[in-house]
Amino acid sequence: MTQTPRPRESAPRGYPAVVGPADPVLTAVVVALVAFGVVMVFSASAVFASRTYDDPFRFLFRQTAFAVVGLVLMLGIARVDYHRYRPLTYVPLGGAVVLLLAVVLGFGRTAGGASRWIQLGPINIQPAEIAKLALILWLAYSLSKKRESIRSFQIGFLPHVLMAGILALLCLKQPDFGSAVMITLLTFVLLFTAGARLGYLLGAVLVALPIAYLLVVGNEYRMNRIRAFLAPFEHRHDVGYQVAESLMSFGAGGVTGVGLGDSRQKLFYLPEAHTDFISAIVGEELGFVGVAMLIAAFVLVVWRGLRAAAGAADDYGTYLAVGITMFLGLQSFTNLAVAMGLLPTKGLVLPFISYGGSSLLVNCAAVGILLNVSRARSTQEADEAAGDPPADSNDETGRRTRRRRSKQNRRRAKGVGVGVVAPGGSVG
Description:
Blueprint: E1 17-18, H1 24-53, H2 58-77, H3 90-107, E2 109-111, E3 114-120, E4 123-125, H4 127-145, H5 153-172, H6 177-194, H7 198-217, H8 220-230, H9 241-253, H10 278-310, H11 315-339, H12 357-373, E5 377-378, H13 380-385, H14 396-413
Antiparallel strand pairs: 1-5, 2-3, 3-4
Helix pairs in contact: 1-2, 1-10, 1-12, 2-12, 3-4, 4-5, 4-6, 4-11, 4-12, 5-6, 6-11, 9-10, 10-11, 11-12
């Protein structure tokens, strides 16, 4: 009895057809992180919500709703061939610029001295989170389209730096220094991945460093964060209060923690316990073991993301996977490092864990794209579109096609790591 072959999902004409499932390990880890985030948001926010809103379940219900929508969105996007985003690249980028401009022009909601949200009824949208994903989509499209000219300053370098600069400047006007830094880092990583000239990248770093220095020393709010980072307990009763309480939270947890739901720091001692500093509550309630498992989960996400980038069918998929992986990895590392006093406070949430609807939805959408890139694809359709014979033909030309494809796969398998060179790219 013969088994009916699994039907392949449709793909845009000229692109490889999807023939395999999405990465099951990456899917399982992200679902587990989202579920864990819902539990920790409730644990960290119940007392605050009860005292402030007279409803201990306020943030639990909201985060649960966003988690369900986010996971459905992730699984749905995972079934959409990522090549279909190419003609729509400028739509999310233009939308992100408009939203950032709206915030800068005074239409945003202000909290904690910054205007970073646009309120639509009960939902608060954070345009900076949308801008990061929109920039990745645009960079992946533009870099793959200009791969023959990527080492050119006018074509391969300058336009991408200018666009990133515009988005970073709009973030700084909110002010949101952390998102501006993240946008800059993502651009640098993708340009390096695509093979831009190393001299241009180093020159950009030399120009950016004094600008960053002036932005910090010229702003008392940012200088206070530096003081809190350098000596949190000396400034425990003023600018270092939040960092000091976060460190005490980690210290109180010990090896195994005080128990889920039994944190003392969330009792109005640690500000932003359910958002920016939720990892400190994880450390207190679940201890070193809980934090180590959380870090291991994010390391696994980064590893599977880079694995998907190495095995992508084309440059566009590689750049998408690298950008999304670095977006999630860098933001996770920054949030955890800030909570542990290893970096100055940045105001970046912990992906999948911190409370926040727009951040969770953007992260889930990004993982959905990454999952689609990770799906196995048949290159027969692409070969036929390019005039090549099918790889399964038995003549000499078919054997040459198989050997060529095998060499491509070996090159991609060697490309995991810092400075991944996408197929068709070159190291600057």
